[in-house]
Design a protein that fits this description.
The complex is a heterodimer of chains A (252) and B (234). With 252 residues, chain A is an all-alpha fold. Chain A contains 9 helices and no strands. Chain B folds into 2 domains: 28-51 and 62-73 and 152-234, 3-Layer(aba) Sandwich (Rossmann fold); 83-149, no CATH class.
Chain lengths: 252, 234
């Protein structure tokens, strides 16, 4: 047996043991409960259907927020790089405010103060905008670290060989930046998915809100939270695994 | 090489080159020496057209070094190989040939392999720069510079980031290129290499060329500064 295979098996065993540790803890907690558990209240067609829709909504909102914050984050990045001092300052001010604001507060202000100011009753839209604004500075950081990773001399070499601007981006800059960008991007995506739960305050039927509504009618609170937990993990764990995969495959 | 340097001055925050005037009309391999900070890297970058001097102009072989025509005829090897880190050694060469020199895939592949083989890298062509030794990466960089069939090759301290064994490996590879009929301009701290490879030597001190001549000036310096320099590098 070669050593890389051995290492792989060792790693798998280590992961299995780690997962078993967590499972053992959960079993212990469950055994200690005095009341009985039953997920049956959630296994009725209507609720199942609602939860499935909510699951899709959570993913949908997260993807929209991801794309939105990537765009806004890039604009902020350009602001920080701008020669015009006002833009630098503006980006700085926004970043400071966002870093110091809890997401929940931002969502509520956006939906209940900013939306009416623009004569809008579309609270959910403004909630999503809040999520986008909240994530934008984090995305700006992603771009910052990615672009600064390309050394000055590489640009010199590109000039020397006579690459056109398009060729520079297409063959040299973007392929390198993407590899560096991906892992942090995925982490941010996880943050967005978890952040989307806060849209429940706007009565938007994402996962958290929908399960909460079910809890109010069937009183199976503990089961509801466990279900919620599991469903969020179903979205986030594959994502972070994907990020790790990309990191391994493409890391320089 | 017909070299014509006219009133070159260059400053970043401080002045690094001070009103250099210099002419040469023969010699195929020019070595530039001097202590760190004497302006030799700046000079070689200006000579290669990569950097524009604050004032003055340079022409080599009757071409302005800032011209497009000139740019197509030079190769440059950086201090730190400076290969594109996400591309294999081979792709580092084929990409340039395909995209900027209009070669077909097969032509580019053929040429890349020819030059990588010439530099004894035939068995490393598909590796990424990070997966080969510093010496191998630097030789690949040399292959890349050669692949565009330049008239002149610039080498800016090609071994400064290598240990003595790898330095020897790279310098030997460069010496083997003597018969290709190329012209060379190089900056280095390895005096034995200057003596072997240069047929003309330029010594820089505080942004000026203060002594120049055949490599024999290294053994019989006429200025105090070069005397001191030779005493220290030995």
């Amino acid at each position: 047996m070669n050593s890389t295979l051995k290492n792989k098996i060792r790693k798998i065993v280590a992961y299995v043991l780690a997962i078993l540790t967590v499972v053992a803890f959960i079993v212990f907690i469950v055994m200690r409960q005095t009341t009985d558990f039953s997920f049956e209240p959630y296994n009725v067609p209507l609720i199942r259907e609602r939860i499935f829709t909510a699951f899709k909504n959570t993913i949908l909102v997260s993807v929209i927020s991801l794309i939105g914050s990537m765009i806004l984050g890039f604009i902020l990045y350009l602001f920080t790089k701008s020669k015009i001092k006002y833009f630098n300052a503006f980006a700085d001010v926004i970043t400071e405010i966002v870093y110091g604001t809890p997401l929940l507060v931002l969502i509520i202000i956006s939906a209940f103060l900013i939306a009416p100011a623009f004569d809008s009753r579309n609270f959910v839209l403004y909630g999503i905008i809040a999520l986008i604004v909240y994530m934008a500075p984090y995305m700006t950081n992603v771009y910052k670290s990615a672009f600064s990773s390309i050394a000055e001399e590489q640009y010199m070499a590109m000039d020397l060989f006579g690459f056109t601007p398009y060729q520079k981006y297409r063959y040299i800059i973007v392929p390198q930046v993407i590899r560096i960008l991906m892992p942090t991007l995925m982490n941010n995506f996880s943050l967005i998915i978890k952040g989307s739960a806060l849209l429940n305050v706007l009565a938007y039927s994402e996962l958290y809100y929908t399960i909460q509504q079910a809890q109010y009618s069937n009183f199976a609170f503990v089961e509801g939270y466990i279900l919620m937990w599991g469903l969020y993990l179903i979205i986030t764990i594959p994502l972070s695994q994907l990020a790790k995969f990309v990191e391994r495959k493409w890391s320089l | 090489m017909k070299l014509n340097i006219n009133n070159i001055s260059h400053s970043y925050d401080v002045e690094v080159l001070h009103d250099i005037n210099f002419q040469l009309d023969k010699y195929k391999s020019i070595g530039i020496i001097g202590v760190s900070g004497s302006g030799k890297s700046t000079l070689i970058r200006i000579m290669s057209g990569m950097e524009q001097p604050t004032s003055g102009n340079v022409s080599i072989n009757t071409m302005d070094v800032q011209s497009e025509e000139y740019r197509k005829k030079i190769g440059f090897v950086f201090q730190n190989h400076n290969l594109f880190p996400h591309l294999s050694l081979k792709r580092n060469i084929t990409l340039i040939l395909e995209k900027t020199r209009g070669k077909t895939k097969t032509e580019a592949e053929e040429m890349a392999l020819k030059y990588l083989n010439l530099l004894h890298l035939g068995d490393q062509v598909n590796k990424l720069p990070k997966n080969v030794s510093g010496g191998q990466a630097q030789r690949a960089s040399l292959a890349r510079a050669l692949s565009i069939n330049p008239e002149i090759i610039f080498l800016d301290e090609p071994t400064s980031s290598l240990d003595p064994i790898l330095t020897h490996e790279v310098l030997t590879a460069i010496e083997d290129l003597r018969d290709l009929g190329k012209e060379f301009v190089f900056v280095t701290h390895v005096m034995s290499f200057v003596k072997d490879f240069a047929d003309y030597v330029i010594f820089m001190y505080q942004g000026e060329i203060i002594e120049h001549g055949l490599p024999t000036i290294l053994d019989n310096p006429s200025t105090f500064e070069l005397k001191e320099f030779m005493r220290k590098v030995r």
